[in-house]
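Case study B.
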Amino acid sequence: MRMLILGTGGMAKNHAKSFAAIDGVSVVAGVDVDPNRLDAFRAAHDIPHGFASLDAALAWGEFDAVANVTPDSIHHSTSIAALKAGKHVFCEKPLATDAIKAFEMVEVAEQSGLINMVNLTYRNVAQLQKAREIVTSGQIGTVRHVEASYLQSWLVSKAWGDWRTESQWLWRLSKKHGSNGVLGDIGVHILDFASYGSGLDIDHVFARLKTFDKAPGNKIGEYDLDANDSFTMNVDFSNGALGVIHASRWATGHFNELRLRVYGDKGSVEVLNGKTSHLKVVMGEDIETATWRDLEVPPVPTNYQRFAEAVRTGQMQEPSFRHAAELQKVLDLALVTEQERRELPTH
Amino acid sequence: MAGLQVQRGWGKIEGVELAGAVDVMPANLEAFATTYGVPNRFGSLEEAIAWGQFDAATVVASDAFHHPLVMQLIAANKPIFCEKPLATNHALALEMTEAAERAGLVNMVNLTYRNVAELHKARQIVTSGEIGEVKHIEASYLQHWLAQRDFSNEAELSGRWLWRLSRNHGSNGTLGDIGIHIIDFTTFAINQPIVSMNCRLQTFRKVDGDRIGEYVLDANDSFIISAEFGNGAIGTIHSSRWASGHSNDQKLRIYGNRGGIELSHGHWGTLLRVCAGADVPTSTWREVKAEPVKSNYERFVDAVRAGRQEVSDTLPDFHRATELQKVLDLALVADLDRREHKV
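Model:
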């Protein structure tokens, strides 16, 4: 498979390295509007071809698939253009800036018959994959109750840098700089954790978002600090199970930690992903004594590897554009429920 | 519950004497009075009040009877220790609170988890400002007994379990049974009230027709609450009786802008962990020990002896229980109209 890396900013190096490391995959070209950035990127990753636009690259055409690592708002137009040109697409998350655009992308992708996947990175967590396998195989019975949290503390701790002075953090606090806050940044990951891990779709959602005072006038230089810092979500799932999904950038004591707890009528699973990952389960006879056991889990293929496999075999793999669009719908609704303060159905 | 109160509380306090017992069921009354050596036995509260040789009363009747019994005791000028929930709705609870306060009587509600020393310690850490302003909270109360029951075995279910699943047998489900505890646990620890909330309740099918004998299985098994607190913090409070792997576990996670607190409590014990101060840059959590606290029973006895209510913002008095009742009432409303409500 010949890959083209579209957009050579921050995340692109992970794509270049990860795809280049896969047998049978070569990264043949990069695209960026910034020639200096493009040259540096091509040099760093030994990429033979470079283009200033996707159109130029498509006119050349000597590649099979695109890793779309452009800014969020560009995903829509570029992914559709690539698909229409017959190229498979591996798109960074979020798939689009809203669900309407996301479903337009789904439609084009599904009509094309091409491979379309979204890089929901936590799918690479083996413990999450194993948890889903345990749940969907029926080993914990019917799922009744779910809790999922994604906790960060970079608004408190300076371990990742000082958000007060560094633009890489400040833009994430400001709507007009393109941030949809913690919901837009990590909400999609924890929603995916909750619904993929529990094997269930979200039916209804009620969400609260909160932006706490952070600076005099909630402004630092050109940055209005108006994007949400924390959210809480009440959801119900397709089988009637209830769940809470929540996230914060103020969770002192947790740098970057995802937790999922899925309770069924025959057992339960807990996934913890921070510096290290853990999977704990209670099922079978152990439920009588509430004895939890740690499960060791072998690594799973990464999204990059699964995309390459999908292109090679012609068989779609998850997470698909459609799945990401369904998550985007929940994120969009969360903003509406914050305004209307009532629960809304997802379909 | 009456026996448990004697074992855990009254029986252990010097100078407290069980002078009399009341029950409408003669067999229950005899069994209880014999087990605990209670000399005077009454078939009704009226008879006991007419007799009058007692200083205070503990109300351990079914929830629906708390209101009439407490009102009678207030009229008889007796200090009252009442099981939770204080009443079956906010209006009744408020009436009881106002009457008790007007009469100047010692009044308390048995919010049992106030006996957990680490809960008081967590509150002290929050109110001292050590973790800064509280921003984000998660609280859960998880039980597994519904996952353990065999619903085809009516004999096993009857008595202890079945009434808890049925609204017409006086159960308000998980919300009424343990929701009140975790809502108290949370708002007590952070010293902030819930100011607005959304709630969903769920009752899962246990048997065909959702009925066993005279018991309609319609009480809620799980609830989820999304709440905003007095200082603007947001949080989630949730509970289920289907949580395999948790026999009876409370977990509270409180995050402030200078530190975090994580408190777990269950039959296995209690663990209070804190990350604050110099530990924040490394996200290091440390266990914190708590000094023992007086139990609800001891505080009630102290207050009766002093002849007046203890002046304290940590007392689980009728007033506090009435605030909690308001939240429980609104949870039911929110589940019906699927909206957020101001408390």
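Chain B is about 35% helix and 25% strand. The remaining cases will be described in the next quarterly update.
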